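User: My advisor, Dr. K., asked me to get a structural model of this assembly before our group meeting. I'm new to this, so sorry if the format is off. These are the inputs:
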Amino acid sequence: MKRDLTTTLLGGATVVTLLIAVGLGLSAPLDINQGSLVRLMFVHVPSAWLSYLAYGGTGLFGLLYLLQRQRRWDRLAMASAEIGVLFTVATIVGGMLWAKPTWGTYWVWDARLTTTALSLVVYGGYLLIRSLIDDPERRARVSAVVGIVGTLYVPVNYMAVEWWRGVHQTQTLKLLGKPRFDAAPIYGWVLLMAVVAFTFLYLYMLRVRGTLAAREEAREERELMNELGVSHARVEVARG
Amino acid sequence: MSDPSSPLPPGGQLGQARRRRRSPWPAVLGVAALVGLTGFIAFGNLNRSLEYFVTPTEYQQQQAQLQGRLIRIGGLVRDVQYDPQSLNLRFVVSDGGASFPVQYQGAVSDLFKENQGVVVRGEFEGNTFHASDLVVKHSEEYRVPKTQAELKDLLKTTE
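Assistant: The format is fine. Below is the predicted structure of the whole assembly, which you can bring to the meeting.
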């Protein structure tokens, strides 16, 4: 297997930043109301960030595919959508574990949670559509459009706590209006480190999954060529 | 060779055979199901809207429509009376404008206290709201203990 320096570097950066984030998170003082439960935020917020990043990536790579018609953009869009679904599930599971001891229930159908669940429908649908189309060019074209439209989920989900009343808290880092961080500064540093770590994690996973997809595609092409070659040879024999 | 309209020799061109024609109906039904599910999740809840709960003031204004229906009310907790033995909880939910007495039976989250945000689901019996579900909201602000007294308090509760 060919060694790839970028992948190794991304993996290394992920491990180092994750370790720093874990160290910072475990040494940070506890929240005055929630105690150690506040640490769930250090996992919940970065995984939500990663899922936004990944869905944004699916839209961006889909757009790049439509502009340049290069298959590698389509592979990255698919890889990004898979990562997005994975980390949406991680966000939901982490959030449920946090909700039970604080809200008193695992799940409520408020706007933020409902739209998050809907993203699984949207991107589950995206991956389903991909599996239904055989022609690679057509598959790339159709899923690029779905991926671009699906990106709408990110702003709607982010703003859901502002637009509709619900149970989920509003943003701690306020970016609308005057920027403000409504928590102890140490929590800000932990979150920043964790977000950096999860960003590296995304890039790393995207690269690994993209490489895998490229190899799968190459193998399929090769097999198809071989089959064609064999059948051609048979035809030649039959004619001969 | 790649022209699909040309007559193919038997056994040749496996690549073309892979492309099957599909009926569009499964895809159409799938999309319709997704749209339907979306609509159901978005509007199929108790209040027939994307808002999760009504405030006490809104309830007072729309009392005629909402009376006798299963609803959610959200507001701040006042005048808590809790019996840990019988798990019988009485409090008042208020938004400053209007307030209603609430009765609930069961354990509540540790964050439940005076002035905490809360969403209760149930219906009115007389003037008292009988809640079957109680969800505690918490603030998006997180802070660490600043004084020794706060720290001791925190240690005591986390033990």
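One thing worth pointing out at the meeting: The CA atoms of residues 2 and 16 of chain B lie 8 Å apart.

User: Perfect, thanks a lot.
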